[in-house]
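Q: what does this look like with NAP bound?
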Amino acid sequence: MVKAKVWKYERRFDGFPKEGDLKLVEEELPPIKDGEYLAEAVYLSVDPYMRAYAPKVPLGATYIGQQVARIIESKNPDFPVGKYVVGSFGWRSHTVSKGGPDPAATLPTTVLPDFKGLPESLGVGTLGMPGNTAYFGLLEITHPKAGETLVVSGAAGAVGSHVGQIGKIKGLKVIGIAGSTGSKMVKAKVWKYERRFDGFPKEGDLKLVEEELPPIKDGEYLAEAVYLSVDPYMRAYAPKVPLGATYIGQQVARIIESKNPDFPVGKYVVGSFGWRSHTVSKGGPDPAATLPTTVLPDFKGLPESLGVGTLGMPGNTAYFGLLEITHPKAGETLVVSGAAGAVGSHVGQIGKIKGLKVIGIAGSDKKLKWLKDELGFDEVINYKTEDVAKVLPKLAPKGVDIYFDNVGGEISDIVFDNMNDFGRISVCGGISGYNGEKAKGNVIQLNIVFKQLSIQGFLVGRWTDRWLEGIQQNLQWVLDGKIKYKETRTKGFENMFKAFTDMLKGGNIGKAIVEV
Ligand SMILES: NC(=O)c1ccc[n+]([C@@H]2O[C@H](COP(=O)([O-])OP(=O)(O)OC[C@H]3O[C@@H](n4cnc5c(N)ncnc54)[C@H](OP(=O)(O)O)[C@@H]3O)[C@@H](O)[C@H]2O)c1
């Protein structure tokens, strides 16, 4: 059952709208019927008409407005899953709609046309109702002629700024009247490292604060976080983070103000900005971060969130960490631990592309089912309910040639016991020990010596100079349907800490991210 958040008209506006005039409630939505679809709001429009039309809105109704929404379920072939619609659905997070013109709305509900890579949000702005208001309202009503003088009031708003620019295209002298006293101070929400983690991270170890950002200077830009990455290394690197600092992490952010031509407004960047909602950056490589801050490459219509997942650091970790460290050959047997996570699920699929037999080890049956049924892993083991030491030799009767190790600890000891002579081991991580757990390990040297194993650890930053190669190859594999991905999204910047601890406990399938 999907729950929609909805703003209802609770008390008639009397003068300027006041807190409590609208009320946020939750509403259960019925399952969709044939001909219907379920759309999830992504961008909601905020328009002056919402105040002007208020006397016509019945009390208790969903408040009026347009939105750009993503179709997440559909029984209507004209409105397929994954497409975006612009609809007069009102102030609500989820909507069941029939599609087609909405009889109650004056504007049509349409699938978003191809915006040629421009952001979908323009569907309620420049390429939607306000843009058409400017276009038709100026040209059809006033029939301007080059050389004339045009005055636009409300000149810096959605309609006014567009009208003035059409005026310039038509050769007019344009005078704009607007009302601002200077640039607005932006407040960033920031998670600070307040108290050193002791074992598993606890509420209060990180603290959410607000920080005022200075106006941007020449060469700088202001970026607003859209997707924040949640990664195991955030726990592993904690001893290196100074207390009081912004907590470490990568994010996909949208540039909302810029005085740097290489980072223009509207573009997305992937940056090691930390756990913060807004960042003033200079662009270019961040000397404090090992990974480059870059404008997001063209993802050919795939979601920008992949910039911190399959088409970002974890994807490159899988690509370089498997291929450059273990040099796999078709027919060999690969074991991946942490197999249903961002890196592990990707490694196993590259293994399949390279013709390997792939065995994944992960911590829930739901994860195993995904690995086997959807990603094509050959065999899977639930390390929480099965005896890996008994099961692995049966699933790998010819032994293990390559081990991609994400977890360390007991699981890795057992895999080592099953390695073939001259086996190769890519040590990517050791999450079983990140919270200070005592290792119960064997003496691995015996296996290493007698089987003449090659073991190599790596940090993905080693391949910074080949970063785009990894992203382009992974992108091609995704477009070809050879690499599939899943994201576990947590909504709300204020839920970062919860998303982080959920991931450490294995709550994620695929990449864990926070959607602001
Ligand atoms: N070397 C590098 O440059 C580099 C870069 C990126 C990531 N990494 C490492 O790669 C590993 C995977 O990272 P990721 O981003 O893909 O994270 P992830 O696998 O998406 O998420 C972490 C997963 O670890 C598993 N886990 C937690 N505690 C465990 C334990 N005690 N034993 C076994 N599994 C446990 C959980 O899945 P289950 O349900 O299966 O337990 C959890 O979902 C991590 O060790 C990370 O530090 C290294």
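The chain has four domains: 2-115, 129-177, 186-304, 313-464+471-477. The mean pLDDT is 94.
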